[in-house]
Amino acid sequence: MNQFQKYKPIAGWLVINALLPYLIRLSEVVTVGNSIYVGVLLMVLLQGLNYVLMRKHIELAIATITLNVIGFVLVGYFSIVYAIYPIVKVILLPLAYKTGAI
Predict the structure, then answer these.
(1) Please, what's the b/e burial string for 62-89 (b: 16 or more CB within 10 A of its CB; e: otherwise)?
(2) C-alpha to C-alpha distance for 53 and 1, rounded to whole angstroms
(3) What would the pLDDT profile of 6-41 be if each residue is shown by its tens digit?
(4) Close Cβ partners of 53 (under 8 Å, ≥ 6 residues apart)
(5) Which of 26, 81, 93, 101 is the residue whose CA sits 20 to 30 A from 87?
(6) DSSP characters for 42-83?
(7) DSSP string, 6-43
(8) How large is the greatest C-alpha to C-alpha distance in the chain, in angstroms?
């Protein structure tokens, strides 16, 4: 049982930030018509779940919630796990090309 306790924070983090957003997307609960209300409500619920289950590791919880909110605002994904690719592909690469960094 002690072996599982060691991996409990990462398992909880993966369930909240990878599995639940994936299941929400598959269920098609959030549509174009209701995304402003249901999407924001689900985002708040997921981040509340992040805080409640990760409160023993408050730094991880705050960092994850901050990154998830940034990903949600920038590209509309519920989790930074899924938002990182669109953020790089759609925002950062064109910005780098435009400024001449690449």
Answers:
(1) eebbebbeebbeebebbbbbbbeeebee
(2) 19
(3) 888 888 889 999 999 999 989 998 888 888 889 899
(4) 12, 16
(5) 26
(6) HHHHHHHHHHHHTGGGHHHHHHHHHHHHHHHHHH--SSHHHH
(7) HHHHHHHHHIIIIIHHHHHHHHT-S-TTTIIIIIHHHH
(8) 54
